[in-house]
Design brief:
Elements lengths: L2 H4 L3 H24 L14 H17 L11 H29 L1
């Protein structure tokens, strides 16, 4: 049995980890530059380093799922949930690309 078949949720989880890290880094950078404001009401009152730390911790927690039986689940619901989360994060990163382009071009 191939690795993909035995761990069907591995790629969507890794993708979510990477997208969350990229979002954390770009948010931190944008906040320091004064180019953006944090849109998440749970994080908006925190300083940039604290926001980055929370996002880094969340990425570590997500990566920890790779070492649990969750990655072996053959669940369509979990796969759809992770793909939806990846789609949302991709949209957020698209917004980051837009403000970077507006700021530096």
């Amino acid at each position: 049995m191939s690795e993909q078949l035995r761990t069907p949720l591995k790629k969507p989880i890794w993708t979510l980890v990477v997208l969350n890290l990229a979002d954390g880094f770009l948010t931190y950078w944008g906040l320091l530059a004064g180019a953006i404001e944090e849109a998440n009401p749970l994080l908006s009152g925190l300083p940039p380093l604290a926001i980055f730390s929370v996002k880094l911790l969340l990425s570590a927690c997500l990566a920890a799922f790779l070492f649990t039986p969750l990655v072996r689940l053959e669940s369509r619901v979990w796969r759809c949930f992770l793909l939806a989360a990846n789609f949302v994060y991709a949209g957020i990163l698209s917004l980051h690309v837009i403000w970077i382009a507006l700021l530096y071009l």
